[in-house]
């Protein structure tokens, strides 16, 4: 799977590239926010790929134990390299990281992804002096222990306790039940010697809710678990083989008072609890994490599309015309229908993640100046977008896998691993349904506010202009016009939000408690949140197409993709547009025929559109998706490495098969 | 995961069982076609579960090599047991097989699933004398080598050649290109010593298309590959770890003329080709295989639903009412919306598979009496149903997995393995899109025939009564009435078939070749085939509810499930019903509110409905789905067995982590 075997280009792929209507490099620059970023990315990638100490082993042939060990080894190499080569700055480090790990996961990702940031945002200066530089320099390794066996998304349900003992000025950390065992934190099982443990704080006989505590788990001498600590790996999972997701049970473990992170709330030596000044600041980190998830979702979908689109040009099958050569699979309309809407979604989500990142940094600036006004709106959007993009990404990777036929099912395609490692994003950092319901709660609140003539702004401003009455019959519409499409999605979202809000009200009026009413409408509420996110993604895609600094050919292909994204979404959700006759049946027929035209229009540019993602073979890790298209030769080379092929005759023959065959022959 | 740990029942599950409105045993008997079958099934299961020689190892903790070896060992034990205990008859053997293998796959399944049946149906009597009893007694082990690296579903594209040499009266088997390598056959890589190779037959300078040839692959003395044979394992896949799917390349391998299976076509010693008498007979086997796939799809979905529904009653999360205890996850409407439609689909597909099996046996009888009239209709239905049911099953298992939150992602849930092993059914035995298009071709043909007043019968009779005009406004409809629901699906299917046919005609009239026209409409054609299958499944479910020999309480719950299946499908495809105003927007609102009521109505019976599938824990292989609901204790017990927990301190600590930590500490 290395580029070393990239000799001659498969002629079918060469023809595709020669025939593209635009230069993919211009879209690469757009996706990576500028040529400078692209060149820097490529430079760092080369640095990693060419480094003899960073050569890659194919994970498919390794056991889980080997994969964990390799993950650890690679993490250490990577960190030492960063220090040696002086690679700093979050973007450079992340680019280099991706190039070093090549799709492999990192056992210590929670250390830098959660342990360090939480210390930074929630530790006092004195605590930072003590812990942060140790952690930054990997003199200690930490994880973030929040989720428990019996509780995930609902934080208030967590059972672990931290009880303050003023006599010794210590907290007693305890797992009162089996279901309170910390369960799932990455790096907890085997790697970490410290953890930030989230626990219910008890002092002076009262519970003050979840707070973070630094707990040492293992000896810094010999890594054995400390007294009172029961710790281990939670066992194999769908993916994440390299990560030692772990469990932790604490039996009255005592830690000094100073190990509670006290930047926001405090427990004084005598046990007095001091409230945090502002509890909303924690939302910032959550939004950043969710923005990263949107960006990861986009990139995972890009990878899957790259594999499926390229392979569909190399693979030939069946016949459209009798006697003619077998066509490329991508010439089948059904194949285009599977892949091109996902390709357009990958672009749409990429642009949505740009918006989220930009907004996050702008918002952080506002917040630091005391302006929290935009926080609820963007928080609601980030929750919904996280759910919306990961759901499409997860099922989309699976669609791409199946679009590659039998070979998609082989680990040689890279798609099973991509799916297994990417799909947890639908569950972690807030389960998707719960996320949609959070968004819905905000939307319904805004809808209510708009009824009392409160002015709404930003991404929810449109709710002030809700039109529940149908607006069809307003004459011939051009359903390829971008603003017309935005209008359709806006109408749908506004209508569905209004409907859910009214339904909620009806249930309450009929005597249900607000909670039961909410639960009774929750299917509709999820639906309205999805429609809101869908609208935002379309709106943002259209804005990007309009404002992007690209040449006309690139803008033309982006416009086509944007139309396809919107048109396909209308077809997938046609009932929502027909229900109130916003669209007529006849207009839907037009939409269907637009779809067929758009698929045909994307077809000649499909390979260039995935090339524009600029995912090197080393990171793509797919025999089917190779840039040079030399699939079959490399599929055979790959298969030969299968551990079952180490000997011509497998040892099980001697042990089991031979005696069995002999026994049976004797019976004849 | 054994039933040994089944001590006390989780009180939440006990309450569910106590509160059910019907006796699940009556549905168990309906699903298994009679009490006698259920008792026999349970007897055979006990026989396997209690056998000390058939105890089970958890696959999650084994390497692929270990799993292949275990698969082989277990296959041999299973066969010896069948012979010792005199277990015969296809149903008994299959029940016992399932109980022995417990979700594990069998490396030699192609031997009994394809090699033996093909010998039976395509070998002459003389050939059967020579090969069949050897194969039946496992004195030789065979596979069925059809698919090639470069060709799957499109059989005419296969490249392997078998050229007759009259001088020596031999066939020369040859793989002319890399892409002609046989690729994927189960058991080919390491286990089999013979194969039925499908190859293009050349004699007297002419090609006569695909024919089956018996080729010996490995020495019966020491299992080494014979001269000219290159053979091996194709490498790791998403699932199917126990199976050595293999590759095979032949370099001018000579086999005697008698090794071509000659029941249907023949090559005489001088090279004269003798045509088969009837080429349609082969369809019979294909239909049987597809009926089995429909049945397997139903059962896989049953397993996933059993896990998710039971776990959702044990798992408690969040709060509906402040201060109240955390509710069971299944009390959330959104969770019901994810799971209950799938539960209803599992029943629907089970009943559809009953229909397919019954029809297959009836049809076989007709065929043996020379009546082939029903063959095209049932062939088209079996292709479509295979695709329709496996697609819902595959994404349904994934939905169930995600509905179990984080723990669904652990192999302890059993769901990742179930998904990975079940999803290939979407691809093998005819890729799903190709299958739908086969069905569509038949439907369009029937539609055309109906236009010339030809009478259609059986499952397509309704196409004679196509109404493309809308029929709404005919007064208040009861959309919970089963016949009304059948009518809605019938209308939709007929309309979509008509629309696709008309579109096809329009493209042809506009000057496109029939092939290009077909391709240009293929998205619509797939859609009409799906609608046809959907209609069939609803129709058949309704018929089953009406005619089933069950008590009133069971019929009531079946009726609810059937309504839910149909109502949910209308919502999922609402555009199809609104487009021609067959349903009005107002009626769709009613349908939505019916859905909410039906979810609530299924809720108290959900556990009993999955219990009725009668899947023992030993086969379910899921900590989350245990019958006794003791999830958390057993999750912990399971995790402790993780290979990473063999030692408290993993060896990678000494090798990598310790030196790294020391280096970093020294720097501080």
From TrEMBL, chains A, B:
Its main location: other. Residues 1-19 have a biased composition (Basic and acidic residues). Residues 23-141 form the Acyl-coenzyme A oxidase N-terminal domain. GO terms for cellular component: peroxisome. The keyword Oxidoreductase applies. Keywords: ATP-binding, FAD, Fatty acid metabolism, Flavoprotein, Lipid metabolism, Nucleotide-binding, Oxidoreductase, Peroxisome. FAD binds at residues 147, 186. This is Acyl-coenzyme A oxidase. It comes from Branchiostoma belcheri (Amphioxus).
